[in-house]
Amino acid sequence: MRVARIPSAVLAAALLAPVTACGTSSVPDASAGGTSGPASAEARRSTRPEPVGAVMPDVVGGNAGRALEQMGSRLDMEFEDASGRGRPVDDPAGWRICGSRPGPNQQITDFPVVFEVVEVSEGCEDATPR
After folding, report:
1. Which residues pair with 118 in a beta bridge?
2. Strands (E) located in the chain
């Protein structure tokens, strides 16, 4: 079941917002001393690594409906019945997450994000191994 879509840039911004909203910047303040101007700013940028993309949170064991709320309804995600019975996931709140693609704490490089789920009355041990 495809729930919703969101461009990957928006997903990255949404997942990284709590990290960047903490208040302090890791970029040195140009007014703190040293040379200033475009040349020095460019030098600082070229020595810094590119920012890391969005990382899949560890939602395994959690409620699929809650994960949907937390990750945003516009994220391009799918819920798959992990039991192997091919049941439709019409209401994610009635399902438990047993796995995800990409896995927990892995960089999200492709869409849709897939959550492998079983009904809340079932355990993840009822899931068919991939």
Report:
1. 96
2. 2-4, 77-81, 95-101, 113-119
